[in-house]
Amino acid sequence: MKTPLDILLARHQATAPKLDTLRRDVINSQFRQRNIAVIILGFPTLLWRELVWPSRRIWMGLAAIWLFLLGINFSMRDHSQATMAKVMPSPPMILAFRQQQQLMSELLNPTDVPVAEPKKPYAPRPGSQRRRETTTA
Amino acid sequence: MAQSEQLPVQQAREGQPAAWDTLFRRYQLPLFVYVFELVHHEQTSLDLVQETFIAAAKHIGSLREDDKFGSWLFGIAHQKCLLLWRKKGGKEILLDEIPDAPDEGIESPDDFLIRHEQEAEFMSLLNELPLPQRSVLLLHFVEDFSLEEIARITETQIGTVKSRLHYAKKSLRKLLEAKNENTP
């Protein structure tokens, strides 16, 4: 006498090797992919677990110092910009400064270019004088 | 029963391939038997078992209680069978209306003993049963699932499962008795 289960299992026992192959294929395909994903996604987790979490107080202290320095840096930058805006000279002052600079450069570096002589007015010579010059030659 | 077994479901949740191998090895043949006796095609049954395993590996997070792994896995397979029938243009063949069963205890599958010479007849009689009854009876025979578990697997009411199981067993007994009477 057999139970229905015995009969059913015995009837399909021949499929067992196919089912073994199927099982291995599923496990290989599902968990190989998953392992790759775990390696890729697991690296940040590993860093967090091994590097950050054990010395979290030190990291938090460092982070606080950095934040403090960053805050100071920002406040300094704002202050210097405001100061610069205050110091900026007015346009008449700039103009006067440029004029003064130009004058100074003229005084210290006089130009070497010679001044051209003014042209003489044309005066025609007498004709007798021209002839004499020809004979002597 | 599957519930009393110590299965590495927690390790499987953690993604350990060895745990999955143990679980799949435990259920591969009963699952194949169940699917095959519903669809009656070897390659289709193998494909459905494979799809069930892949779905189980992907959605293990949706399993609430570890000790319900077996019924959860059979539930996936059952849904795959339904999808296949729907694709083939079948209607809701697993959802028939049958009268309520009398309020009596459900006997163990081991009480249903079959003589060696009756084995072939048993299989042919099983296949003569309507699909909803066959499905419930197979789940009862193959894994000895409780009424609640069968109801969860087939997504039906416990009362419906009870009726189907009662009428399936009754039909099977009647058919077996009729065969016995006919044989000299």
Count the DSSP helices of chain A. Answer: 5
Largest protein interface?
A-B, 26 and 35 residues
The profile of the biggest β sheet of chain B is:
none
Average pLDDT, all residues of chain B: 84
The CATH topology of the largest domain in chain B, please? Rna Polymerase Sigma Factor, Chain: A
How confident overall, as mean pLDDT of chain A? 79
- What is the rounded Rg of chain A? 51 Å
Number of helices of chain B: 8
Instruction: Tell me the number of strands of chain A.
Output: 0
Helical proportion of chain A? over 70%
Which overall shape of chain A is indicated by the principal axes computed on the Cα atoms? elongated
Q: What is the makeup of the main sheet of chain A?
A: none
Order of helices and strands of chain A: HHHHH
As residue ranges, the low-confidence spans of chain A are: none
- Nearest-angstrom radius of gyration of chain B? 17 Å
Name of the CATH first level of the largest domain in chain B? Mainly Alpha
What would the principal axes of the Cα set say about the shape of chain B?
globular
Task: Provide the low-confidence segments of chain B as ranges.
Answer: none
How many domains of chain B, as an integer?
Answer: 2
Give structural notes.
The mean pLDDT of chain A is 79. Chain A is built from five helices and no strands. Chain A is elongated. Chain A is an all-alpha fold and 137 residues long. Helices cover 65% and strands 0% of the residues of chain B. The termini of chain B are far apart. Chain B folds into two domains: 86 residues, Orthogonal Bundle (Rna Polymerase Sigma Factor, Chain: A); 74 residues, Winged helix-like DNA-binding domain superfamily/Winged helix DNA-binding domain (Arc Repressor Mutant, subunit A), CATH 1.10.10. Chain B is globular. Chain B is built from eight helices and no strands. Chain B is mostly helical and 184 residues long. At the A-B interface, α1 and α2 of A face α2, α3, α5 and α6 of B.
